[in-house]
């Protein structure tokens, strides 16, 4: 068995999440920033920028968001980076944002661009994990979580509990 430090990762996910959530999840924001920064030098039209935002920048944090609720500040900063990239802003020159970001996050048939609201998407992915616990109670993760957090009840009546894992806290938050 390998001994790991507090700052190691397994499958790209931190193995230890303490109280400083912003510090732990800051690396995902850095990954998105590196991708966006590399594309800024290329002179892309809106269609190309939109495709890159949807296919790469919003896809990078998806795996992590299906296991943990990201801090609001991290979601806000990633959306801010995507906004600036979308409108063509850079460090020394700000561009006008002609449409509110919430409007661009609407579906295309409702007049938006189809971008994701990262906070809502994060909660939806965690709610999906809760749904999996309900519909597949024989799965390994369901039996482990049931044994630890709701051994004598059902998932819908489960309480968060004291000193529970951050993954359970996240799924429980989405349940509420």
TrEMBL record:
Keywords tagged on the record: Nucleotidyltransferase, RNA-directed DNA polymerase, Transferase
A molecular function (GO) term: RNA-directed DNA polymerase activity
Entry protein name: RNA-directed DNA polymerase (Reverse transcriptase)
